[in-house]
Amino acid sequence: MTTIEVLERDVWPDPGPDATFLVTRCTQLRHKPLAEFTVEDLRIMLGQEIGVSALLPRAVDVLLRDPLAEGDYYPGDLLANVLRLPDAAWSSLRVERERLTAVLTQLLAVPPFSDPDLKPRDPDRLLRDAITTFVGGAEKQDRRRSVRGRRRAG
């Protein structure tokens, strides 16, 4: 049974009765078999940047099938947390990032994300802006790799 706790070889102590729901839930999820994680479990843990190396590939698999997969809050809540992860989280997941970028590029082309009149605080606009930033960051990395490759070849 593979868990985050087993993978990280780090046992967290019981948070105690005064702990917040989030602290208690994250501690519980560190004991949960990875194969049993739900969209909501992935959303919570990635939102807290816990177990990212084990959970991000699983989250990407979910998002490739359904980019707006929904935990307990709103369509796209898992995606929103994945898009907030630092670039370093993707360092060993170049292919996965490219695949997700392709799916998200297609998503940007259809309503509601293609609507230019989305209000600044509209959840779809906020998610669209995050997707655009992510897609732009991936394109920048591709250009840098291409330039480095040409320098080595030349």
| Uncertain parts | none
Percentage of residues assigned to helices: 55-70%
Total helical segments? 7
Give the ordered list of helices and strands: HHHHHHH
Description of the structure:
This protein has helices spanning 4-8, 21-29, 39-47, 52-65, 77-83, 94-108, 123-153. α3 crosses α4. Helix content is 58%, strand content 0%. It contains seven helices and no strands. It is mainly alpha-helical.
Essential attributes:
7 helices; globular; mainly alpha; single chain; 154 residues
Helices, strands, pairings?
Blueprint: H1 4-8, H2 21-29, H3 39-47, H4 52-65, H5 77-83, H6 94-108, H7 123-153
Concise structural overview:
This protein is mostly helical and 154 residues long.
